[in-house]
């Protein structure tokens, strides 16, 4: 086992809910995977057999249709965990987890997750907080996707990456390329570029090499820009083949 994997597990928020013996056992049972850019960390239809934590890199959680259209749920950055919803009941993954850049993930097997679920009340409380944070994120995504224009969608997407439960390692500098910001916001790279510079002119962030520095998180969270009309059609500058509204039935 690498030191990086062990550090990831021991420093995760949920680890605080475990006894030292419980945490040692989880560490021993877990493994890591290296996934190239464009590779699948989890794949729709395959058995959901592990809980996934991002050690470094970036995942896009999405679903795709046979005609090539893709709907993005959210991104998971370093320090974040995903997959607990699928592990709470037997079955298969209902979405894809795709690496947007070379990514390493920690994998906790289903049997370890289920043992903690059955024996540790504090771990269950953490899961409730985590799932509630994910649900709140998705409600927000639906709200600003349906009611706000692309500049505001980019602003709210960036702001959503600062939830302390879902993204415990977030800092003021967000290491995302404009392509990645576009993918997570469901707009083209060109439209993401325009939105970022509009937000920079408003003093909310600074566009830098390799990412953006957030100057006013509250401003990003409340940014409305130019509202769209109810029942709008697909954004003409959305990603080719990208569905605008994310499905709602389940969370990663």
Outline of this structure?
The protein is of the alpha+beta class and 252 residues long.
Shape, please?
A: globular
From the 3D structure, determine the CATH topology of the largest domain: Jelly Rolls
**What spatial order of strands do you see in the largest sheet?**
1-8-3-6
Report the average pLDDT across residues. 86
**Over the alpha carbons, how many angstroms does the gyration radius reach?**
18 Å
Terminal Cα span:
26 Å
Task: Describe it.
There is one protein chain. The chain has 252 residues and is an alpha+beta fold. It folds into two domains: 3-121, Jelly Rolls (Sandwich); 130-222, Orthogonal Bundle (Arc Repressor Mutant, subunit A), CATH 1.10.10.10. Helices cover 39% and strands 21% of the residues. It has nine helices and eleven strands. The chain has helices at 3-11, 20-29, 84-87, 110-119, 121-147, 150-160, 178-185, 189-201, 217-222, and strands at 31-35, 40-42, 50-56, 58-64, 70-77, 81-82, 96-99, 103-109, 173-174, 205-208, 211-214. It has a four-stranded antiparallel beta sheet. Strands 2-7-4-5 form a four-stranded antiparallel beta sheet, covered by helices on one side. Helix 7 packs across helix 8. The longest helix is centred in the middle third of the chain and has 27 residues, at 121-147. The radius of gyration is 18 Å and the shape is globular. It starts with a helix and ends in a 30-residue tail after the last helix. Mean pLDDT is 86; it is low at 227-252.
């Amino acid at each position: 086992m690498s030191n990086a994997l062990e550090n990831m597990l021991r420093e995760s928020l949920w680890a605080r809910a475990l006894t030292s013996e419980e945490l040692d056992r989880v560490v021993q049972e877990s493994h890591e995977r290296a996934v190239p850019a464009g590779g699948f960390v989890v794949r729709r239809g395959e058995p959901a057999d592990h809980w996934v934590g991002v050690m470094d890199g970036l995942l896009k959680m999405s679903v795709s249709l046979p005609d090539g259209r893709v709907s993005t749920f959210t991104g998971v950055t370093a320090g974040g965990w995903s997959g607990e919803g699928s592990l709470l009941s037997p079955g298969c993954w209902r979405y894809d987890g795709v690496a947007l850049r070379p990514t390493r993930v920690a994998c906790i097997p289903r049997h370890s997750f289920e043992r903690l679920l059955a024996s540790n009340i504090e771990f269950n409380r953490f899961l409730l907080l985590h799932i509630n944070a994910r649900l709140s994120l998705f409600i927000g995504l639906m709200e600003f996707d349906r009611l706000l224009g692309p500049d505001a969608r980019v602003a709210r997407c960036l702001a959503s990456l600062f939830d302390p439960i879902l993204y415990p390692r977030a800092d003021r500098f967000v290491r995302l390329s404009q392509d990645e910001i576009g993918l997570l916001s469901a707009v083209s790279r060109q439209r993401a570029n325009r939105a970022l510079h509009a937000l920079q002119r408003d003093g909310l962030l600074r566009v830098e090499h390799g990412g953006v520095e957030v100057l006013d998180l509250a401003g990003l969270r409340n940014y409305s820009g130019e509202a769209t009309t109810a029942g709008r059609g697909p954004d003409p500058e959305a990603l080719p083949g990208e569905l605008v509204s994310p499905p709602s039935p389940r969370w990663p």
